[in-house]
């Protein structure tokens, strides 16, 4: 067990306190779009759980049961009905979200302890610092959403699994199984971990981290981890005990119908139990696959990223975007190659510039220098996971928005820090780490007061504030509350981020609802965000209000050429 100095303990404590403190700022004074669903689902989940009506714990197709379980603790000491007024609802929202933020804070400590098995303590500290203050992770860690607890539960699952394969201590087997179950309870795209663990199992043998005689035992133990994960998943979704087919429809059906898992799983069984590892031994001894894989994968990774950039900008310059992508707002049923480049580009433009530099350095070091397998094999695994995730989504024809790839951001940080730590001049390394830490905190500070509570498609090279999705609703409501006779004012809003905080009468527009002039004339004001424009048909009566001159709006927040949210007086 590693011993920690007083300075290390103080530094770690400051990081966790900073994450919790900044995350708590204005924690109740916003409301994101998808949170409206969880506002009712969390209560339904806990009511069903406590009453024993387990079938009704299946509230969502995500399934989102773990964050529902944690967030729902607020109802044990607060009565929601006492806070459903514009001047009190922020108190409820604060305590509704705080358990999520608290769990994410302590998970950073757990991740740090696991990282110490692979990296020096300074490197581990820098990794969790950069993870904590990656804007998408920091922002999503503050809201009630399926992605909020996925980035850390998945990372803990993977790190503890690798540690188990190397040390074979039962506690890491249990940790991996439990957190895998929690990951599945957050969101079903954690299913990719089944495939990834098989990949790691094989790579660990090829990298000579596993002895030949241990393969059979460790493979069986991997299956045991999966069993533990299904048990944990079922505990948080007890609807499984009433309808066991949920396991098949939500997990096993997806696995068995994937193009990779059944073949890969069958291959390992045949080679391990029938051929006595002859195939893997041939690959290991004759092909030198581990060394080949280490050299080629980073080059493929970076090449795909930059090819995707070239393709995208060529399409944009030639004005062929509509011909190439059709309706660019589609999120599914997209042809494979189109989905691949869209997903690679979405991934690339959503990560911070200093981490992009780290990716480039990593490719350089793996290509031209002799590397420490202990450190670099972990980063190779992280890169493998990123590619598997993007490839899996592309095979399903899914276009990944930035918030959907939150699982990937910690792995980018690990790869980048691995590269930076390889620099020979230690003072330069320390300077870079300090610079990166300051840059990350400044990045978060510039996003005050909402810190990315939720976003659709952030681009670090362009606009970063997303008023149409969440930011601005609370502020606009406070401005409207100052109007004379505000309680008599009626507002029609295209989202709920305004409605909870306004003292007058409000009504939300239902998704893709037909909006007529007669409906609009029943209200005094509209509260609109331009990122919602796409949900309406071109002939909808509300479209003209989105396109009005910005100086004619009563209140306006945001960037005229980017994302904005505004209140507009209706002309009678």
Strand/helix succession: HHHHHHHHHHHHHHHHHHHHHHEEHEHEE
How many extended strands?
5
Output mean pLDDT: 86
Secondary-structure-based class equals mainly alpha
C-alpha geometry: globular
Determine the strand fraction and express it as a percent band: under 5%
Low-confidence stretches: 453-468
Distance between the termini: 73 Å
Quick gist of this model?
The chain is mainly alpha-helical. It has 24 helices and 5 strands.
Features:
mainly alpha, 572 residues
Describe this structure in words.
The chain is mostly helical and 572 residues long. Helices cover 59% and strands 4% of the residues. The chain is built from 24 helices and five strands. The chain has helices spanning 6-24, 35-51, 65-71, 89-115, 121-132, 135-140, 150-167, 170-186, 192-206, 215-236, 239-242, 245-256, 261-274, 278-287, 289-317, 321-325, 336-348, 353-368, 373-395, 409-420, 426-445, 473-481, 517-520, 543-546; strands at 490-493, 505-508, 525-529, 555-558, 564-569. A five-stranded mixed β-sheet has the order 2-1-3-5-4, covered by helices on one side. Strand 4 (555-558) and strand 5 (564-569) form a beta hairpin. It starts with 5 loop residues before the first helix and ends with a strand. Residues 453-468 have low confidence and may be disordered.
């Amino acid at each position: 067990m590693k011993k920690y100095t007083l300075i290390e303990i103080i530094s770690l404590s400051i990081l966790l306190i900073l994450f919790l403190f900044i995350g708590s700022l204005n924690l109740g004074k916003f409301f994101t779009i998808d949170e409206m669903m969880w506002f009712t689902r969390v209560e339904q989940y806990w009511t069903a759980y406590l009453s024993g009506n387990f079938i009704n714990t299946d509230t969502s197709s995500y399934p989102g049961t773990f964050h529902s379980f944690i967030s729902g603790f607020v109802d044990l000491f607060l009565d929601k009905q006492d806070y459903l007024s514009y001047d009190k609802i922020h108190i409820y929202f604060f305590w509704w979200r705080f358990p999520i933020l608290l769990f994410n804070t302590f998970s950073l400590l757990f991740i740090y302890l696991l990282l110490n098995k692979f990296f020096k303590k300074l490197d581990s500290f820098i990794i969790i610092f950069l993870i904590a203050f990656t804007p998408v992770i920091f922002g999503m860690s503050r809201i009630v959403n399926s992605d909020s607890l996925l980035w850390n539960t998945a990372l803990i699952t993977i790190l503890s699994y690798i540690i188990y394969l190397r040390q074979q201590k039962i506690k890491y087997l249990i940790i991996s199984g439990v957190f895998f179950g929690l990951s599945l309870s957050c969101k079903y795209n954690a299913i990719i971990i089944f495939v990834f663990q098989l990949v790691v199992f094989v790579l660990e043998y090829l990298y000579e981290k596993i002895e030949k005689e241990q393969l059979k035992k460790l493979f069986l133990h991997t299956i045991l981890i999966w069993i533990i994960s299904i048990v944990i998943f079922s505990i948080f979704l007890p609807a499984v005990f009433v309808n066991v087919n949920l396991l098949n429809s939500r997990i096993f059906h997806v696995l068995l119908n994937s193009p990779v898992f059944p073949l890969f799983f069958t291959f390992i069984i045949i080679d391990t139990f029938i051929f006595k590892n002859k195939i893997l031994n041939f690959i290991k001894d004759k092909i030198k696959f581990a060394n080949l894989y280490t050299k080629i994968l980073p080059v493929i990774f970076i090449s795909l990223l930059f090819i995707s950039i070239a393709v995208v900008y060529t399409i944009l310059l030639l004005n062929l975007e509509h011909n190439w992508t059709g309706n660019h707002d589609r999120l599914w049923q997209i042809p494979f190659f189109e989905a691949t480049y869209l997903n690679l580009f979405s991934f690339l433009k959503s990560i911070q510039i200093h981490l992009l530099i780290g990716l480039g350095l990593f490719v350089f070091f793996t290509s031209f220098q002799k590397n420490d397998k202990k450190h670099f094999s972990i980063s190779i695994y992280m890169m493998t996971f990123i590619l598997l995730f993007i490839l899996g989504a592309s095979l399903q024809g899914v276009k990944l928005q930035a918030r959907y790839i939150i699982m990937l951001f910690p792995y980018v940080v690990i790869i980048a820090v691995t590269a930076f730590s390889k620099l020979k001049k230690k003072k330069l390394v320390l300077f870079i780490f300090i610079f990166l830490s300051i840059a990350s905190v400044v990045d978060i500070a510039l996003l005050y007061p909402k810190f990315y509570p939720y976003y659709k498609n952030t681009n670090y090279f362009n606009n970063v504030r997303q008023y149409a999705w969440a930011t601005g609703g609370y502020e606009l409501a406070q401005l409207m509350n100052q109007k004379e006779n505000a309680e008599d004012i009626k507002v029609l809003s295209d989202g709920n981020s305004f409605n909870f905080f306004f003292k007058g009468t409000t009504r939300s527009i239902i998704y893709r609802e037909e909006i007529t002039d007669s409906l609009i004339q029943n209200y005094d004001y509209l509260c609109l965000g331009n990122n919602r424009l796409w949900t309406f048909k071109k002939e909808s009566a509300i479209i003209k209000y989105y396109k009005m001159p910005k100086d004619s709006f009563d209140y306006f927040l945001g960037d005229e050429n980017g994302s904005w949210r505004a209140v507009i007086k209706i002309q009678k």
